[in-house]
Amino acid sequence: ETTPDEAQFDDLIARDERIEPRDWMPDAYRRTLVRQISQHAHSEIIGMQPEANWITRAPSLKRKAILMAKVQDEAGHGLYLYSAAQTLGATRDDMTEALIAGRARYSSIFNYPTPTWADMGAIGWLVDGAAICNQVPLCRASYGPYARAMVRICKEESFHQRQGFEILLELMRGTPAQQRMAQDAVDRWYWPALQMFGPPDDESPNSAQSMAWNIKRFSNDELRQRFVGMLVPQAEALGVTLPDPELRYDEANGCYAMSPIDWTEFHEVLAGRGPMNAERLRRRREAHENGAWVREAATAYAAKQATATRE
Ligand code: 3HC
Fold it and tell me: Is 257 helix (H, G, I), strand (E, B) or coil?
C-alpha cells in the first residue's frame, strides 16, 4: 500500500519532474543522492591537486593564468556540490571529515601523478572531456539542486576541455620531444579516463535504481562509448594515437570495439592503493588543518555579530 507521499513522489518521477528539497522523498533516494553528490564534490576538490602541481611551473604567464582559473573553477564546483548535498541534510563538517578520514570516495582519476606539463593537456582533454560526457546528462537529474549545479559546472567544463586540447595541439606542433611528451601523457591518462565512468553496467550496483529515479540518464558503458566516439576524431586532429590497438568502430553493433579495461587497477585505486591516493589525502588533511584558524576566526566573528545585534 503506497502512502500519499510515496504516490506523489512516484508521480513526479513518472512525469520526469524535479524533486525539490522540501518535497517528500524516500530515504534511499536521499541517501543515494548524498552519496553521489558528496563524492562528486570531493572529486572536484581533490581534482585541484594534480593541476596545482604545475601552477608554479607553467611554461608561460598565459598558461599559468589559465591553469589558475581552472583550479579555482574546480574549487567552486566543489562548493556548489557540497551546498547541493547540504540541502539533503548532509553537513559540510561530516562530509569533510569523511573525506579526510579516508572513508569517502572520490573519482579514481585523481589518484595518478602529473610528471610533465603535457599532463595538464591530457587532463583537460581527457578527464574534463569525460566529465562533460558524464555531467551533461546530470543537468537533467531529477533532484533540482543537483541538476541546477550541473548547468553552471558544465559551462565551465567546456572551457577546461578546450584549453587541454589546445595545450596538446601546441605540443604536437612542437619539437619531436614535445610530441613524445604529449603522446606519453595521452598513453597514461586514456585508460584511467575510461574508468572514470564507473564499472561495466553488469557490475554496477547503483545504476538500475539511479536510472529508475532519473538520476542517472545513461548507463556507465553508454557514456564510455559516447566519450570514445568524441575522442577518435579529436585524436586524429591532434595527431595523437589512442593507446588501444583493438579500438575500431564495429558497424554491425554500432559501437566501438576496444581492448578489455583493467578493472583490477580500478578496484586497487578505489581501495586506496593507487599511485597517489595517500598523497592526495595527506595534502587535503594538511589544507584542512592549515585552514582551522580561518574557520575559528569566522565562527568567533559570527558569534560577536550575533551578540552585537542582540544588544
Ligand atoms: N571513482 C571512484 N569511485 C567510483 C568510480 C570512479 N571513477 N566509478 C564508480 N565508483 C564507485 C561508485 O561510487 C560506487 O560505489 P559506492 O556505492 O560506494 O558509491 C561503485 O563504484 C559502483 O559504481 P556504480 O556504477 O554502481 O555507482 P554510480 O551509479 O554512482 O555511478 C558514477 C558512478 C558514474 C561516477 C556516478 O556516481 C556519477 O555520475 N557521479 C557524478 C559524477 C562524478 O562524480 N564525476 C567525478 C569526476 S570528477 C570531475 O568531474 C571533475 C572535473 O572537473 C574534472
Answer: strand
* C-beta of 43 in contact with ligand 1 (< 6 A): yes
Query: Coil, strand or helix: which one is 21?
Result: coil
CA of 56 to the centre of ligand 1 (A): 30
pLDDT tens for 44-73 read 999 999 999 999 999 999 999 999 999 999
Q: Report pLDDT digits (tens) over 19-41.
A: 999 999 999 999 999 999 999 99
Global ipTM: 0.97
Ligand 1 centroid vs 223 CA: distance in angstroms?
12
Give distance in angstroms: CA of 106 to centre of ligand 1: 7
Residue written as grid cell 574549487: 75
The count of residues in the chain is: 311
pTM of the model: 0.96
Atom of ligand 1 at shortest range from CA of 223: 34
Contact call for residues 27 and 35 (beta carbons, < 8 A): no
